[in-house]
């Protein structure tokens, strides 16, 4: 566990976590950090915690002692968000101290009681403050549905620090650099990518509420944004606000100037058309990504489709429906409410077809409002006429993408 001073009397405790399925689903190839914050006035508060703190009270004790915090002096646990990646440590903390007050929203209070059986809770509303002494004053600001209904920001007034919890978070392990102004260009690029993965995997379904939370964060004078996952922003806190605004637009059809080919093929017939499509994309100078389902991780699949302005769905008919791994991927995208993408499908069939009907059902069921170029289906192996139609479809897709591009 790392201990980083972020201002006088404020420390971050951060832990890199790997080899886990985040939320039990997302295979996060580059790990994630869990950040917790200690604010010391005359009294001491911990804002969010680190999952389990490895379950051993002695480790928690030792880590706190190393930054001169005596666990017995911790009076307040601020729960910005009750999801157990931030609150799971409460049951370990109570092994070293059982007398503390939990500070959270009314909605979180109900969850704290039902998950942990705790009832010494101070419920806070918009603008309520907690004076810790020695000039440290926290205020609390609910941001519901980011991404649970209970979430709030905490803000420390003397240091102008916004503790934003999941908001402005990113996946990706942190090395020796923790602040935006320490990052190398490579690290900046890494965390932009991991921010997109985080937003698309965890947050995107709640995009309208995230937009409200972005607006709310703009009301504060901010020296540092201190999220629950990923880097801290003090050099240019506005950048992460702008990035999150851009991501919110990706959720509704905008994207980078790239096409993602979401594909699957049993015996290579659709594969022949994909090879042809790649030649066209290269000729047209369009950057593209390929996601072969079901080999690609769910996390990477969602993130890559999410950030692309154009999508090619390439998949055959299977048992009168769309090739199942591709159908499942599209359904997942739909459940995440990733709407408005420009897209084009082609694929092979043997005798009846049926893929097309299921694709329409998936788009309709999830109200995806994708801007579809008419599909091209071919019997068995694609022929010269099919290639012509596929080329025309790709060119139409590139045309549709043009006004959706936001880098
Ligand atoms: C398990 C299985 C189920 C299939 N079901 C259908 C079907 O319901 N209707 C149809 O027209 N073709 C069906 N096909 C035929 C495929 O769509 C056809 O072989 C196509 O060329 C496969 O494309 P691919 O080589 O890209 O996988 C099925 C093939 C397999 C192996
Ligand atoms: Fe969360
Ligand atoms: Fe979280």
Q: List bound small molecules.
A: flavin mononucleotide, fe (ii) ion
CATH class of the largest domain: Alpha Beta
CATH architectural arrangement of the largest domain: 4-Layer Sandwich
Q: Beta-strand level of the residues, as a percent range?
A: 25-35%
Largest sheet: 7 strands, mixed
Q: In one word, what is the shape?
A: elongated
Explain this structure.
With 407 residues, this protein is α/β, with parallel strands linked by helices. Helix content is 35%, strand content 27%. It has two domains: 2-250, Metallo-beta-lactamase, Chain A, CATH 3.60.15; 256-404, Flavodoxin domain (Rossmann fold), CATH 3.40.50.360. 47% of the residues are buried. The protein is elongated. The chain binds flavin mononucleotide and fe (ii) ion (2 copies). Flavin mononucleotide binds next to helix 8, strand 18 and strand 20.
Characteristic terms for this protein:
407 residues, Metallo-beta-lactamase, Chain A, five-stranded mixed sheet, Rossmann fold, binds fe (ii) ion, seven-stranded mixed sheet
Short description:
The protein is an alpha/beta fold and 407 residues long.
Describe the secondary-structure layout:
Elements: E1 2-7, E2 10-17, E3 21-22, E4 26-27, E5 32-40, E6 44-47, H1 57-66, E7 74-78, H2 84-87, H3 90-96, E8 101-104, H4 106-116, E9 121-123, E10 129-133, E11 136-142, E12 152-156, E13 161-165, H5 185-203, H6 207-217, E14 224-227, H7 237-250, E15 256-263, H8 269-284, E16 287-292, H9 298-307, E17 308-314, E18 317-318, E19 321-322, H10 324-335, E20 342-349, H11 355-365, E21 371-379, H12 384-401
Parallel strand pairs: 6-7, 7-8, 8-9, 13-14, 15-16, 15-17, 17-20, 20-21
Antiparallel strand pairs: 1-2, 2-5, 3-4, 5-6, 10-11, 11-12, 12-13, 18-19
The structure holds flavin mononucleotide and fe (ii) ion (2 copies).
